[in-house]
Amino acid sequence: MKKIIVPIDFSKYSEYALEAAAVMAKQNDGEVLALHMLELSEAVLTKGSAAQSEEAIFYLKLAEKRFEEFLDRDYLNDVNVTPIVKHFKVFSEVNDVAKEHDADLIVMGSQGTSGLAEIFVGSNTEKVVRHSETPVLVLKNKLESTAFKNVLFATDFSEESIDIYKKASSKLEGMGAKVHLVYVNTPGSFLNSTEMRQKVSNFLAEANGNTDGMEDTSFVSDYTVEAGVLNHANSINADLVAVATHGRTGIAHFFEGSISEDIANHSILPVMTFKI
Fold first, then answer.
1. What distance in Å separates the CA atoms of residue 79 and residue 109, rounded to the nearest whole number?
2. CB of 218 within 8 A of CB of 232?
3. Buried (b) or exposed (e) across 175-207, using 16+ Cβ within 10 A?
4. In this structure, are 217 and 125 located in the same domain?
5. CATH number at residue 8
6. In 29-177, where do the E strands start and end?
7. With a threshold of 0.70, does the pTM exceed it?
8. 37-51, 159-173, 177-191, 239-253: which range is least confident on average?
9. What does the alpha-carbon distance between residue 100 and residue 259 come to, in Å, rounded to a whole number?
10. Tens digits of per-residue pLDDT, 54-73?
């Protein structure tokens, strides 16, 4: 975790993320990139070049001043922090910044959404999770510890999930975590016990070259995958939920949804997403 990006909107949730990132950076002799995306209005963009430039500079200066105040935290002492201000509130741009700086992790604070707001708007966190090729750690509360020792990794055990499972397991185990797997059986895609175990066994044999992970895999039944994952995470006292995301966008996302985004949006526990 040498480079950690924290999108900042100056809320208490982004402060939760900033403090967690600071701790992780200290532990790994790393750097925190504090990212604020400045949304310039159409009024600014459609002005003449001189006026546009003058007003843009004004807002940039305001953002820089607010950054200085927001980053004046004791927990940032002895942490290498680089403020970055970008134009426009385009959430795919967080992924661009992550790739540009070769970041290891994005840490985001999230209030989450529900009901109609979730259907028609979604949360900023969901949008970052959807676009990011870099793992995203989503926090809803101030972390007591960044030492994630008991992690539940949720996957559909499909062949296309094998590579990301291997990468995620390597990263999580490198953080000192014990990784547990869970298969959620739902009414819409029901398998009997033998079929479930065979699917997981085939997955592990292909991913690890053995089936030793069967002993750390739980088989649960629930009405939805999201409910099964979150309920099981609580039952094993997990301190982190890790999930693979397909990063659906556009109309496919609207009609099909994304289990990973829903988990990240609704979980009280920290969630780390890995894009397939």
1. 19
2. yes
3. bebebbbbbbbbeeeeeeeeebbeebeebbeeb
4. no
5. 3.40.50.620
6. 31-38, 80-87, 105-109, 136-139, 150-154
7. yes
8. 37-51
9. 28
10. 776 777 777 778 878 888 99
